[in-house]
UniProtKB/TrEMBL annotation:
InterPro entries: FAD-bd_PCMH-like_sf, FAD-bd_PCMH_sub1. GO terms for molecular function: flavin adenine dinucleotide binding. It comes from Vibrio parahaemolyticus. This is FAD-binding oxidoreductase.
Length: 75
């Protein structure tokens, strides 16, 4: 998995309607938690989509930048 450049992240954030959470954000640990506490993943970026367009943009961003992708639906 490639590391993300700050300019790449900023470009994504400027076009994304939802929230983007990064490891440097104070709420990162809270946001990245999932129901199974045995799994401890630390994504390079968390995209909290607000629309179908955000979902498309997030999937395309991950693909175009060589990032692994995990989807969480329903909350």
């Amino acid at each position: 998995m490639k590391s993300l450049e700050n300019t790449t992240i900023e470009h994504f954030k400027s076009h994304f309607q939802g929230d983007v959470v990064l490891p440097t954000d104070s709420n990162y640990d809270e946001v990245r938690q999932i129901w199974n506490g045995m799994i401890d993943r630390k994504p390079s970026l968390i995209a909290r989509c607000k629309s179908a367009d955000d979902v498309v943009m997030a999937v395309n961003f991950a693909r175009d930048n060589g990032q692994l992708l995990s989807v969480r639906g329903g909350g």
